[in-house]
Design a protein that fits this description.
single chain; five-stranded antiparallel β-sheet; 15 strands
Length: 231
């Protein structure tokens, strides 16, 4: 079920699918308290130095084109992934079993950068659609349930208890005067269009409206891509 959304931002945590046009993005609040507690118990650094994520959607007709951006809640530091595309996989769960499309990636952080991203409040992971329009989601699961994030460091790896999900619609006209200079932690490989999209993500403050604990039925992810088994 495609859910066309108007200009601006909207909380889509409880929705099962959303239509993303070119330049639209889904944002996910990613707290690190679970990793910090476990790391502290083992005497390890309390900020994760690796972030892995897997988003599972209904089968897509094309691989799509995405950028993943991990940003601090105060917009001061951002890290950009390499280009991402969907790969075919298989999912088994109580609500659905069958073919899926899988979007997965990882980010490696220094301890200093990790503290800047997670130190004061949860970070925000943006999945930015840089390709053609597509519908993302795996009904009957919600968009909040479709993403798994793992935080690692020092030999420890834990799942992040995600907060809410918001969608930013880029269809409203750009404000050239509001486009910022890249922040010190931003790793950019794209051009002006991507800079403008990131500027809109910062202005939208999606993280302010995407807080809270993970809700809904839990399910076990068993999506197998050509790269191997997704944890």
């Amino acid at each position: 079920m495609a859910l066309p959304l108007g200009a601006g931002t909207i909380d889509v945590s409880a929705q099962v699918a959303a239509l993303l046009d070119t330049g639209d993005a889904l944002s996910f609040t990613v707290p690190s308290w679970n990793f910090s507690i476990n790391a502290g118990n083992y005497g390890l650094p309390v900020y994760p130095t690796s972030v892995g994520f897997t988003f599972v959607s209904a089968p897509q007709d094309s691989p799509g084109q995405f950028e993943a951006v991990l940003e601090s809640s105060d917009d001061s530091v951002s890290v950009l992934s390499s280009a991402l595309s969907f790969v075919p996989g298989t999912f088994r769960g109580p609500g659905y079993s069958g073919a899926v499309s899988v979007l997965e990636g990882s980010l490696h952080l220094s301890e200093t950068l990790s503290q800047q991203l997670f130190g004061s409040s949860p970070a925000v992971l943006f999945l930015l659609n840089t390709g053609t329009a597509l519908t993302m989601g795996l009904p009957p699961y919600t968009l909040q349930q479709d993403l798994n994030v793992s935080l690692g460091g020092g030999g420890l790896n834990v799942g992040a208890p995600l907060g809410g999900v918001a969608l930013m619609d880029s269809s409203d006209p750009p404000d050239p005067a509001a486009t910022p200079e890249p922040s010190s932690g931003l790793l950019l490989t794209g051009g002006g269009a991507l800079l403008w999209a990131l500027a809109k993500l910062r202005r939208s403050k999606l993280s302010r409206g995407a807080e809270g604990a993970l809700e809904g039925d839990s399910y076990k992810l068993a999506a197998c891509s050509h790269a191997g088994l997704l944890k």
